[in-house]
Structure formats: structure tokens, C-alpha cells
Amino acid sequence: MIFLIGYDVSTTTGEGRRRLTKVSKICCNYGQRVQNSLFECSLSGSEYVKVKTELLKNIDFGMDSLRIYNLGDKGYGKIEHFGVKETYNPEGDLIL
Hints:
This protein is of the alpha+beta class. It has helices at about 15-30, 45-60, and strands spanning about 1-10, 30-35, 40, 65-70.
């Protein structure tokens, strides 16, 4: 299934900047960055549970925000992209 994961981590403190780095690295491990704090992820059910658990362990519920959108199995057919940077499609052809 395709998920969009977006976050807003408060970086007014050193601890916040460390949280931002951790959250960003977690998202990079599971998907493709399409905006600064927005990732497209193709995940199985168990991968979704794992990434969600990791992210929830690393945010401050009083200062940060995390949003996860489930676009379903046909999610990429629902995404429209305009402007620079071609949309990433993990289910498309892979050129090495």
C-alpha cells in the first residue's frame, strides 16, 4: 500500500533538532522524500506498523506533528505532480 508520511518537528531546541534528524532518517529508510518533510512510502502491513511505531517513539506529542495518509494499493494513480522533480514510483521500472 502507498502511504504519505508528513511531519513537523519543533527545532527551537537542540533536542528538537535531534528529534528531527531521527524522524527524517526513519522516513528515509522506508520511502522516498518528495518534499522536505513529506515522504511517499510503499509499505506492507507489517512495515507500516513498524515505521509508525518508530516514528511515534521519536516525536514529542506536545511539540511535534505527524500525519500518515493511506492511499491504498492504487495510490500512485491518485497522485498528480506539477513542476520540477519527477514523481517517484517504486512500483515502476528500475534502471541500474
